[in-house]
Design goal:
The complex is a heterodimer of chains A (274) and B (438).
Chain A lengths: L5 E10 L2 E11 L4 E5 L6 H8 L7 E7 L5 E3 L5 H6 L3 E3 L12 H7 L2 H7 L4 H4 L3 H20 L15 H13 L5 E5 L7 H17 L3 E5 L3 H7 L2 E6 L2 E6 L1 H6 L1 H8 L13
Parallel strand pairs in A: 3-8, 3-9, 6-7, 7-8
Antiparallel strand pairs in A: 1-2, 1-4, 4-5, 9-10
Helix pairs in contact in A: 3-6, 3-7, 6-7, 8-9
Chain B lengths: L1 H36 E6 L2 E6 L1 H20 L4 H8 L5 H21 L8 H26 L8 H18 L3 H23 L4 H21 L1 H4 L30 H4 L7 H26 L2 H11 L1 H6 L4 H27 L9 H14 L4 H17 L7 H15 L14 H7 L7
Classes of the chains: A alpha/beta (274), B mainly alpha (438).
Amino acid sequence: MSEALLHVADLTMRFGGLTAVDGLTFTAERGAITAVIGPNGAGKTTLFNCITGFYKPTRGLIELRHDAGESYNLARMQGHRIARVARVARTFQNIRLFPRMTALENLIVAQHNKLMRASAFTLAGLFGLPGYRAAERAAVEKARIWLDRISLTERADDEAGTLPYGAQRRLEIARAMCTDPVLLCLDEPAAGLNARESAELNRLLLDIREADGVSLLLIEHDMNVVMGISDHIVVLDYGKRIAAGTPEAVRADPNVIRAYLGEPDEPHITNGDA
Amino acid sequence: MTASVTTSRGANHVMAALKDAGLAGFVALMLALPLVGFRTVEVGTGLSLETRFDWVAYGVIAVFIGRLILNLWPRNWRIQRRKDAPHVSTETHATTMKLVAAVGIAFAILLPFLPFADRYVIDLAITVLIYIMLGWGLNIVVGLAGLLDLGYVAFYAVGAYSFALGARYWGLNFWEALPVAGALAAIVGMLLGFPVLRLRGDYLAIVTLGFGEMIRLLIINWQGLTGGPNGVTGIPRPSFFGFPFAREAEEGGPIPFHEVFGLEYSTLHRFIFLYFIILILALITNAFTMRIRRLPIGRAWEALREDEIACKSLGINPTNTKLTAFAVGAMFGGFAGAFFATRQGFISPESFNFLESAFILAIVVLGGMGSQTGIVIAAVLLTVLPEIGRDLAEFRMLLFGAAMIAIMVWRPYGLLSRRAPTIQLKGQLESGTVKEPT
């Protein structure tokens, strides 16, 4: 199985006259953490929205290959089918939990499709048949394991909207993981976290890669996270790939330095982590 | 120095309060002058205008003084009270709610046998129960799935007409027509829902409003089938498992209900029977909703209300999920409609206008979206209060508006806005083998 998990080829996304992603090509390897970085407005979130089906790309191919060999062209799939069939999960830059539902309920909603099948599309559930009850117990157990992993068991029955910011970020990651993804896309998971929380996040993400065998694709501005855990980095600027490689190679790349710090004769500094 | 600052601030405060009270008085004057100040009185053959400026004056003075008192009331009073309010845990809340529900159901079952239960009281109770059922049905759409539906009465109409016309053309009785009415309403709900459910928020509200009117206009204009504005008459009354509620048996027909049980004939029997039918229908609606909330589909509805984009990212098909909510809500509207038809014996498009939709929606919103008990309270208040205030019929709408504003000010999320979690880890930990980590 040498084929890459995700292969993006010549991806272009235009909004009217604005080309947010411009002929982008890159691959994300199986079992690896791939980071997408770039200055603000480089097209990172647009790329994510194309991969997860929220935008239909103007042109290009986004191919996802499962271990078993099936491949999906995500550019042509509906958003909810990408999550269900192609098994790509994501989190959002501005957290999108279900704020009035409890942390536990958030994790159980994430297992919706499995539970729908178990409840025979509600019929078995209505009559409380044993098959459904077992499935629900399994779903709770899985949610509980994830609550443990993100140290939120104590607050399982609290509304997600009342949790502290860092906990909400972790809960969103756990919720995405409860969908059993093969690829987890994280849009700025470390935004707004303090140093300790972001170190915890690093451990969680590495653990997801090791223990769960899920590949990660992440957008991040926090260089401690990016350089600390990424296996591969893709650098975007104005929708184009300007560099790709290992953290060391990217850090030394003159194009990257220019994109982040500006041309030598223009000594203004772009603030990268806003 | 400090003292002078305080006094000047105090004086400013009083001035501001006076100014604000004056403004409130002025608004009251402008509103009351045309509404209360003038009155048309029949004099002989014509109308003459009578003025009641003294009433206006009393009203304006009352508003001015009331507002002044409110303004001069110690400022932190309200905040203080909120801080002091004891925190009620979820379990205590759940137990209280269960107790309230049990008492409510017991009262509802005993109501027809209480001494004051005459025909009027039972009839009013039937009306209240119809609205409770409609409120619970609409709650699935609005409260759980978060889809603002301003045309819910369309499904009520479909239910009512499917029974009325089913009885006329195919001789269906109430019990045969009930599932048909529900199924037809659900199908209409799906048909309407399919094209419109990709819209959100205000747009969805406007389109559903339009559909509600379309169904009504269809009924008015499809004279050949529906009788148009004249409505449908002679809708059969429900019978007690085949025994009619009549004084005398029809020739060759079954013996009437009162003879079966050896009772004195009373017109009340039929009302009590209708009352229990709608009570059972409403309780079924409630049981169904409580159950489905705990199922994946119910949780998906609530998740959809919270965040549709997040739902999509979790692989939930938003269109299908919304459609089921729309169809299930419509189905209960259809059941209620069939009951309405058999209770009235006569239906016309007049009964299914937009005001009815708005009224049901008001029940759901005032009750607290998603709260089953809140809907009961709101339905009772909104139906019974106007009945009590019959002598004040002139000011009915005014009182209604005042009640709405009061709710919006003091309870912006409805009377009971607390959401009970559909599942809790606590209980699971106690019953299961899982140990709580320390």
